[in-house]
Design brief:
The protein has 820 residues and is of the alpha/beta class. The protein contains 29 helices and 33 strands. Bound molecules: phosphoenolpyruvate and magnesium ion.
Length: 820
């Protein structure tokens, strides 16, 4: 019988693969074809055979039989055995199994579906050794490779993309591969995928630092291998740094805790903000899809037409999103365009049409099977791309069944509740009426969350399923800062939240108005509020928001997204142009290249390290490869005349390092005939804080990098999905190191700034000022708010607060000192 009839969704929905099920009348499982046993399940109820063509066939006796722990099964083979069609594999006690397990059905499934173009199965009674139960047509490329043998293979390539080959880099690879005639495959371990299929590439689940190889067969195989190898090494158009989620998002990515209060529905913060509105649940309308069709040719044409129309629609959406939210957000839809042209999807759909299915049914089965497979991947980023595939799949399906694809409109002040929303839903969102949304599916890194943040719509994802039980029109508060929807809120409480929102908006407008004024405390103590930037555009934005300079130019961003380091002239030009934007009154601290750890650089090959954060990172790379560092130092020196430039070095932990760098800088200065510039270090390794007194004698200033200082003090990986929220820079251990740094610096008349995330945290600001910090280098959007906050403080109160904070035992206790 068809695998679709098996009473278990895992098999029926072809999550394991395509194949057939047998209702046995005897008690022996025999080999359905020649092959080698590659896996024998410990519970002896399942065995996998690999055919000479590379097909992997899983045979699974019964349902839920794993629980029998081998009882009732006698195996006749072991892993590595070569078997012939009809050989005995496993004998089973049908009576025992029938009584103990859910079903005796035996599934025969091809698990490496990417090698299969088509299957045709037999149904009805069959006789072992006589009837063919399953015919499999291999993909052309597999056949070609086997036949021609002229296979070109690349060298192993280490994948530099921080989150592996997810949808966007996969789409880039596919676009680069498609123009070649050759059959091209990407291999990872024993698995491989068609390099012209986004879906297949995503299912290969290639992770950061995985080794992959490319193979190609065909006329232009060699050229393809050379070009594609380089493209993968270059990161396939992706910045080779970890995307830094906003602090509020990182802090909330722990899964929702069980509800302690029935009036609070918890979820994960996708986009911050507070809103009040009425619920409206998005109901998915079931589409009427008819399974069978008369004429395969007509069906194929219908599918082609729907795909062409979907492409036109998605391209239009991409244009809209690009002008509203920028190119990187629009790329989400570029990936959708690539999915529409995906050979694996089309092969699956065309295969089913050829077997007499309707275009709609064939397409639905094809994209659902692939999306289900993606959703099961352990890599959450790839698993979330299942939503993108379903999104584009539904778009085509709606066109096929003639259902309206127009954007829905909602009542005013809607808080949208949905099982899931797709990027298309976001692009079509009724912005005038939808104030916020909450979905059951998704994570903080999903495309929907990214779009919500760029649109400024408060949103919660991964929420408790209770959201789908709420009636429409209930007044609720959606708190995107805390990741919760509050129910049964009294009219008085709603009014309070509304007042709060209005006050927040008014305050933001006010802060903006005074943003260009200095940040002086009530007792006349001036704090410099400067910005953390990555490029020229950031510099422009920071000046517009009242930034008084740049406390940290993360120069590594100038080195990313390219295949070779920028030349000395190029760097000089970039640094100079930023200095020009800042003008003579705004100083800039430029930090030399800080890569390694979570920030790989494709053209700087680093050894594979067990603990990259404790390995070759920051200045350690600069000292190991002085050519890179010296080029940058020369560019910095040459651009210095364009403004007030200071240079700072990352990841300094030992005195020898700063002495070595100073010697290097002096040499370059002499050669260029340029005068001295101010030198500082990042204090981000606890050793530098503890030895601040010694370091202060070597440099002009310190800038404390609390992101790393906290990570190294608490031994918590700053990007750890579970632990990162515990790495709070207000932990008293970190505060004591800050105090020690300030003490060491002031002994020698040096100043201290902070450029880590806590400089932008209003709860931290008074304490940091009280500890003697002179400069806060903050994230650009927070400049007006932090400046305004400083104007409400007095230095003496801050000092009292800081003294108290240093005596506290936990970060939570410290936070109670400055409620906001
Ligand atoms: C820090 O570590 O606090 C810092 C500002 O540097 P980065 O976040 O770039 O490592
Ligand atoms: Mg750092």
């Amino acid at each position: 019988m068809s695998i679709g009839q098996v009473p278990d969704p895992v098999f029926a929905q072809k999550m394991v693969g395509d194949g057939i099920a047998i209702d046995p009348t005897d008690q022996i499982l025999t080999a359905p074809c020649d092959g080698e046993i590659i896996l024998l399940h410990a519970a002896h109820h399942a065995v996998t055979l690999k055919t000479p063509q590379g097909l992997e066939i899983l045979m699974h006796i019964g349902l839920d039989t794993v629980e029998l722990r081998g009882k009732g099964f006698t195996v006749h083979v072991k892993v590595g055995d070569r078997v012939k069609t009809g050989d005995r594999l496993i004998e089973f006690d049908a009576d025992y199994i029938a009584l103990q397990a859910t079903s005796l059905l035996t599934m025969i499934v091809i698990i490496n579906a990417d090698r299969v173009a088509n299957t045709a199965y037999r149904s009805g009674p069959v006789v072992v050794g006589q009837d063919i139960i399953l015919e499999v047509t291999l993909k052309a490329d597999v056949a070609t490779v086997v036949e021609s043998g002229k296979l070109i293979t690349s060298e192993p390539i280490v994948v530099p993309n921080p989150i592996g080959l997810h949808a966007r880099p996969a789409a880039v690879l596919v676009n680069l591969a498609k123009p070649y005639q050759s059959v091209i495959r990407l291999h990872r371990g024993d698995n491989s995928a068609n390099a012209k299929s986004v879906v297949a590439l995503m299912n290969l689940d290639v992770k950061h630092n995985d080794r992959v190889t490319l193979t190609a067969v065909g006329e232009d195989a060699k050229a393809a291998i050379v070009a594609l190898t380089q493209a993968i090494v270059d990161g396939l158009g992706e910045a080779r740094s970890m995307p830094v989620a906003p602090a509020t998002v990182t802090a909330q990515t722990l899964p929702p805790q069980p509800p302690s209060d029935p009036d609070r529905i918890l979820g994960v913060v996708a986009s911050p903000g507070l809103v009040v509105g009425q619920t409206y649940r998005v109901r998915e309308s079931a589409l009427n899809v008819i399974e069978l069709a008369q004429n395969p040719e007509t069906e194929k044409q219908a599918l082609d037409r729907a795909i062409a129309q979907a492409l036109v629609d998605v391209t239009a959406i991409r244009g809209r999103v690009k002008s509203r939210s920028g190119a990187s957000k629009a790329d989400i839809f570029a990936a959708h365009e690539a999915l529409l042209d995906d050979p694996e999807l089309l092969d699956l759909a065309h295969g089913a049409i050829a077997q007499g299915k309707s275009a709609a049914y064939a397409w639905q089965q094809a994209f659902t099977a692939q999306a289900d497979q993606l959703a099961r991947l352990p890599n959450p980023t790839l698993a979330q791309r299942a939503t993108d595939l379903r999104d584009i799949g539904q778009r085509v399906l709606r066109l096929l069944v003639g259902v309206d694809t127009e954007a829905a409109t909602y009542p005013p002040n809607t808080i949208l509740l949905a099982a899931n929303l797709t990027p298309s839903d976001m692009a079509n969102l009724d912005r005038a009426h939808v104030k916020g949304f909450c979905t059951m599916a998704g994570g903080a890194t999903s495309h929907v969350a990214i779009l919500a943040r760029s649109m400024g719509i408060p949103a919660i994802v991964g929420a408790e399923s209770r959201i789908l039980e709420l009636a429409d029109g209930i007044p609720v508060v959606l708190d995107g800062n805390l990741g919760e929807v509050r129910l049964n809120v009294s009219p008085a409480a709603i009014e309070l939240v509304q007042t709060q929102i209005a006050q927040q908006q008014a305050k933001q407008a006010n802060d903006l108005q005074s943003a260009s004024q200095p940040a002086i405390t009530l007792d006349q103590h001036r704090i410099q509020v400067v910005a953390n930037i990555s490029n020229l555009q950031d510099a422009e934005k920071s000046v517009a928001l009242g930034g008084e300079g740049v406390g940290l130019l993360r120069s590594e961003f100038i080195f990313m997204d390219r295949s070779a380091a920028p030349s000395e002239d190029e760097q000089t030009e970039i640094y100079r142009s930023i200095l020009v934007v800042l003008g003579n009154d705004r100083p800039m601290v430029i930090r030399t290249l800080d890569v390694g750890g979570d920030k790989p650089l494709a053209y700087v090959s680093l050894p594979h390290e067990a603990n990259p954060f404790l390995g070759e990172r920051g200045i350690r790379i600069g000292l190991d490869r002085p050519d890179l560092l010296r080029t940058q130092l020369r560019a910095i020196l040459r651009s210095a005349s364009a403004g007030q430039l200071r240079v700072m070095f990352p990841m300094i932990g030992r005195l020898e390092e700063i002495r070595q760098i100073k010697a290097m800088l002096a040499e370059e200065r002499q050669q260029l005939g340029i005068g001295p510039i101010e030198i500082g270090i990042m204090v981000e390794i606890p050793a530098a804080a503890v030895l601040a007194e010694q370091f202060a004698q070597e440099v002009d200033f310190f800038s404390i990098g609390t992101n790393d200082l906290t990570q190294y003090t608490l031994a918590i990986d700053r990007g750890h999905p579970k632990l990162a929220p515990l790495a709070d820079g207000l932990n008293p251990a970190v505060l004591r190191l800050i105090a020690q740094t300030v003490k060491g610096a002031t002994q020698y008349g040096k100043w201290v700034g902070i450029c880590g995330g806590i400089a932008s945290d209003p709860q931290a600001v008074p304490i940091l000022i009280g500890l003697g910090i002179r400069e806060l280098s903050v994230s650009i959007p927070t400049i007006p708010t932090i400046k305004a906050q400083i104007r409400t403080l007095t230095l003496s109160d801050c000092q009292t607060l800081a003294v108290k904070a240093l005596t506290m035992a936990t970060a939570a206790e410290v936070r109670t000192l400055c409620p906001i």
